[in-house]
Predict the structure.
Amino acid sequence: MSTHKKLAAGMAGFASMVWLGLTAAVAANQRRLVFNPTVEREVAHPRSSGHRTRPVVLRAKDGTRLSGWLMTPRMPGSRPAVIYFGGRSEEVSWVVRDAGKLFPGMAVLAVNYRGYGDSQGDPAEAHMVDDACMLFDWMAAHHHVDPRRIAVVGRSLGSGVAVQVAKQRPVHSVVLITPYDSILALAKRKFRVMPIEYMLRHRFESIKYAPTLKAPTFVLRAASDDIVPHSHTDQLVSKLAQLIADETVPGSDHLNIPYLEDTQARIAGFLTSQFTKPIEIPSSAPIPAPAPDIAVPAAPTPAVAAIVVPPVLPLAE
């Protein structure tokens, strides 16, 4: 064999080894690529100026303790409600601080995912969706909540959670902030030469469920988004069965969009408008019973130890 051919064969073998090594690394570390648990609170002492606020600890079906906050309006009677699902790196205490502007006159539940904030466990798509459905059932049974008027709001990674809850539960309205078609599609975009479809377990394929959603849906995009390109939002929007509006917030990017007054006013306006409409859900529609293994202690649980995550390109914040 000539020197040139030997060199070419050696380079091909080296490239193959690098490709196999990268593929193995992605397969082994996919949880770190999809999730980036944030343990430290964004707001040290969260409290809503427009609600009664209390910390809650709810038990998932497998006993895992999930920590967050319940906010209820000061006026008496059952009220419409919102359940919030955060992004890849998001600890949700900031929602409590801003709930008065985001969700005026509504009951609000914001609970950290497993491994985030004070919640126990490790994040995974299946756990997130099961836990989110449990949160819906708990809110539907709460005496401060009108079970026919519960909305879900999901930001980025959480948009995939919100969509799956809306598929499985009688959700009244849906708000999706910087949503995507699927984490699988985003991963394929980042890892073009790898067989990512055979490795990725946490796929969050919202585009599969979008045509089946019956709830009015509001999409908010960032003006500049280098995490979820607009083309991936376009794919999802084209499949949503009950799209009410698809808006772009001026001056926003993927990270700052939920904190902007413009964003918060748009969300508050959409939900208020939807909640004031006559209920279209048939009176015979079943309302899920609360999970029997849920507990709501008064004291918050100790913080979960921080998970060390090496720098990676996020699939969705």
